[in-house]
Amino acid sequence: AALHANDLPEARRLLAWHLVSRDTGGLSAAEVAGAAAESLAENLSDSVVAPLLAYRVGGLPLAALYRYANTADALWGYRTPDLEWPGKVAARADDLLNLAPARLSAACALLATPLLGLDGRAAWRAWRSGRRATTSPNAGHPMSVFAGALGVRLDKRGVYVLNPEGRAPGASDLRAARRLAHLTLILATLCLMLPRPPACPARRARP
Asked: What is the domain count for the chain?
């Protein structure tokens, strides 16, 4: 809303308050829009799809364990001396628990892209080239698909560039990103609601 109103200082403030830990003071309007789209894609996987998948696999205990690890990573996962070892443990646990959810989110986003009239081929190309571009082993999967689907370049200064041939993102792209996130979540939820395959009957031992 702040970007649509051309209120860049307020957009920077809201971005820093709600979504990202990076310094937003010198970000352009395109960088603010890009950071918001990145956060939407990553948090769709981390905060929604991942706990649903954990619950599907291991019920409430695994879902609670996942949320604990994810929250600990958000609070401790910074390279500061006093949090070095707790942060490393939390970050590694979060990386491990997000391996499957990030890829499920990316796959569902790829399926959702053409259904919304977006560029499925560009999303596929961006995913193939950008899925390993981030420092996280997981974040690049959904973020790169979103970048390609929206046709935008997502650039975190000095860290990574996703879909480098894309155009600069704007406020209108965030509405398209929200639609893509909604349909991605619907598809992921439907996948997680599929019945489990029946267990193979145990063979009787020969006398």
From this structure: 1
